[in-house]
Here is the input.
Amino acid sequence: MKINNICCIGAGYVGGPTMSVIADRCPHIQVNVVDINQERINSWNDSNLMNLPIYEPGLDQIVGRCRGKNLHFSTDLERHISQADMIFISVNTPTKTKGIGAGKASDLKWVEASARKVASFARGHTIVVEKSTLPVRTAEVIQQILQVEERSGKKQEQGPTFDVLSNPEFLSEGSAVKDLEEPDRVLIGGDNDEAIEALSRIYKKWVPEENILHTNIWSSELAKLTANAFLAQRISSINSIAALCEATGGDVREVARAIGSDSRIGARFLDSGPGFGGSCFKKDILNLVYLSRFFGLSEVADFWGGVVTLNQWHQHRVSTLIVKKLFGTLASKKIAVLGFAFKANTNDTRESAAIQICKDLIDEGAILFIHDPKASPNQIEIDLGIKPLDKCIDGSNSKETSKDGTWCFASKIIDAADQADAILVLTEWEEYTQINWLEIANRMRKPAWVFDSRSILKYEEVIHAGLNFWRIGMG
Ligand code: NAD
Ligand code: UGA
Here is the structure.
């Protein structure tokens, strides 16, 4: 099973960067990334690499090196599926919004549609790789769809025949390129040794062999959901302790350092913040909860469900304490919100804690001036579901602040801070650590507050500038 041609269905946050790195490391393989979204494909093909649809440090350089040589972006699914020896399915798998399992189970309609396209267009023997995060036993669904075509009297002399593998992705946004180039592990689940070896050979071009793990297909699917559940659980755990620190006089950073130095616990993923966001943690846990209930394991379902419940409670806790500190009312108060992306170094705002927190503050009557280096005003508008004030969309300070409960985009931090009653840091962008607090304090309305939900600001500098200061988990 020699792989000369790869097709990836889905040119999103996973498909785009993953295939770019494969193309970069395997110049002998032609890699075609296909998507039904013409606009997204146009952006991937934009001659200006600054306009790629996804912001990831280092990605533009890789795309610049490979695009047009062995990396191609297209909407021609039929052509590229029919030419491929290996097809990755890397489409979105959000939580179902209606029907059985609504609000919990994964919506597999895009995966099913992809499998049907593969069944229709594939030629010869094709290895189909699940890259999307999927509920356990989804491979069975894909196999069933493909088998219909295998059995249907064959339109071609040879094939199509298929092997299905699970190869979940563990990259984190913001560090996707590094995670792909130096993964802790690559996981391949399947039962055909030849197909597993064909996929392993690709990764072996740059990943040490001992880091390529082989399991059965169901373990692989379940390991992906479990990894995300464990990571999210750590964040809810530390955020719960942050609340306790604030109540008791502890400092969550000190507690995290103390427990993190125990090698059994480990130091990473213990930063208390405004609550976890991102497209996957919540949906993957809800999926695990759904599966557990489906199999009659209600205690297991309740255990994992608690991680999401705590996260939601924590986000509201942040907005509630801001209202309390600002004398119980936000009506007509201006708040500068620094950061809207769900974490630094990405333009992704999906499930960002900023969405809920900003909505809460707007409900209380605040006028938010939202700054983010990468998240677009259009995306923020979609996420909040509220049109911004026209006058300050370009960052110039609006006098139109008589309107309660609204927002606008500020392209400069200083404009966001002008006459603000408070500054709220929601994303840990590096540039927020460089703020000149004396300059900012001069522009704010007093008494003024700084709320640091990411624990990235220097306490002494903010206090020295004459501002009140609150930091997550600092009692
Ligand atoms: P995404 O929404 O950014 O991209 C998915 C793409 O698939 C979209 O561009 C969409 O147009 C395309 N698509 C949907 N149906 C299609 C079809 N039938 N044919 C062609 N294209 C189709 O999603 P993502 O963030 O890349 O996530 C993809 C999967 O990877 C999900 O299952 C997710 O859980 C998982 N995952 C995501 C991350 C992450 O950091 N975002 C990390 C690991 C795993
Ligand atoms: C996460 C996992 O880390 C990846 O391994 C996985 O592949 C991916 O989900 C996925 O399946 O989609 P990602 O969501 O991109 O990656 O980002 P993380 O770094 O995990 O951060 C998730 C959220 O937790 C962010 O809102 C982040 O700010 C928050 N977080 C993270 C904290 O509040 N504290 C921490 O210590 C770490």
